[in-house]
Amino acid sequence: MPDKLKITLKTLPKQLSIAKNMENTIKSLENNPDNPKIISKNGFIQKFENYAHNIGIDKVGYTKVPTEFIFKDKSILYENAIILISEMDKEDVDMAPSDQTQEMGVVTYDELGKKTNDLAQYLRENGFAAHASHPAGGFVVYTWMAQKAGLGYRGKHGLLISPEFGPRQRISVIFTSVQDLPISDHDEHSWISKFCAKCGNCIKKCPGNAIIEGIHPETGQTRTKVIKELCHGCTICMMECSFNKINYDHIKNRILAGK
């Protein structure tokens, strides 16, 4: 569930930077090579990951883009996707709702957006085509993409829960011509849904009652939905998430032990 980015005097420069970099994701497409490479060689993927980590990206994942993950009014150039994750500061998250939490969220969006464009250009400079998707507004459902890439699992609050950061991360994507990405289909985080079904802290603590549960009309299964119009962008759901308070492996061991 993305924050609503409230504009303040402190965040205005970053807001303008976010807008500029979102515009650059489109403008930069003209830099794609006319005949892009499709196969990586000589350990390029590892070099790409090393560069990503060197500029501050915390996690990298890979997957194909299912059509159902693409927003109805959007289109993408390539089905091969690189998922990028940046951690959000825990101390700032734990101060929610506060101006400091809001400012940190804006900074994280801005910095990840810049790095996403940087990495897209890195791909182009190495002969590949790239279509960057900014974390503050993209073409696909980021949490589902990150889950499919094996980086974590989507919680009731709509946020990705990862082993390293719990719910505290922002996500962006680069669609690329590279066809031999090291895609993994493992689903080692699916146990999280069992815990979330019992927990529900995010639903109980949401001040806007924006997270609701209902029965899926086709599957008959219980599912949650975030009502954007009711979301205050306060980050309380992230702060109150059990995975923000308790170690991931501790929760995992309890669930797998049936406790």
List keywords for this structure.
259 residues, alpha+beta, Alpha-Beta Plaits, 2 domains, 4-stranded antiparallel β-sheet, two-stranded antiparallel ribbon, 10 helices
Class by SSE composition? alpha+beta
Number of domains: 2
Quote the average pLDDT: 93
Give the terminus-to-terminus CA distance: 29 Å
State which percent range the strand residues make up: 15-25%
- Please give the largest β-sheet: 4 strands, antiparallel
Describe it for me?
This protein has 259 residues and is of the alpha+beta class. A hairpin with a 6-residue loop joins β7 and β8 (222-226). The chain has helices at 12-27, 44-54, 90-93, 99-125, 142-148, 192-199, 201-205, 236-240, 242-245, 248-256, and strands spanning 59-64, 80-87, 130-133, 153-154, 160-161, 169-176, 211-215, 222-226. The model has no long low-confidence stretch (mean pLDDT 93). It folds into two domains: 12-176; 192-256, 2-Layer Sandwich (Alpha-Beta Plaits). α1 packs parallel to α4. The protein has ten helices and eight strands. The two termini are 29 Å apart. The strands form three sheets. The chain has a four-stranded antiparallel beta sheet, with helices on both faces. A two-stranded antiparallel ribbon has the order 4-5.
Quick summary:
Helix content is 37%, strand content 15%. The protein has 259 residues and is an alpha+beta fold. Strands 1-2-6-3 form a four-stranded antiparallel β-sheet, with helices on both faces. The protein has a two-stranded antiparallel ribbon with strand order 4-5. A two-stranded antiparallel sheet has the order 7-8.
